[in-house]
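Supplementary Methods, section 5.1.

A reviewer requested that the exact input to the structure prediction be made available. We therefore reproduce it here, unchanged from the version used in the analyses.
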Amino acid sequence: MAVSEARIERDAVRVGALAAAGICVPATVIANVLVDDDSSGGLASLFYLAVLVGFAVGGAVAAHRAADTPYSSGAVAALVAFVVLAAVSVAVNLAQGDSINVVSLVFNGLLAYGAGLLGAAVIARRASA
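The structure derived from this sequence is encoded token-by-token as follows.
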């Protein structure tokens, strides 16, 4: 049995990642301004949900542009956006002398991937209906 080559459509991933970042970056910046570091209230949760929606939108945008590989392109687009945002966040935290929670990074990366996959699934289901 031959192993099939997994593919993603780079243009779709790029556009999806940019769409995700276009939502996630402003939401994160506004959250950093408005939400206190010690806050675990509803406002922090609202911004966290907005960021997850941004990753889902990025996955949907990528899936819409990727005719052959909507699921993988959508999930990878969200993950690419997350990696870029996480790298910036880690750099800022290190510059401020703050610690880096690796478990939190991995968990949030998995959530971003899942949100991108969910956005892709919505588009793929609509296209097949």
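The chain has one domain: 10-128. These observations are discussed further in the main text.
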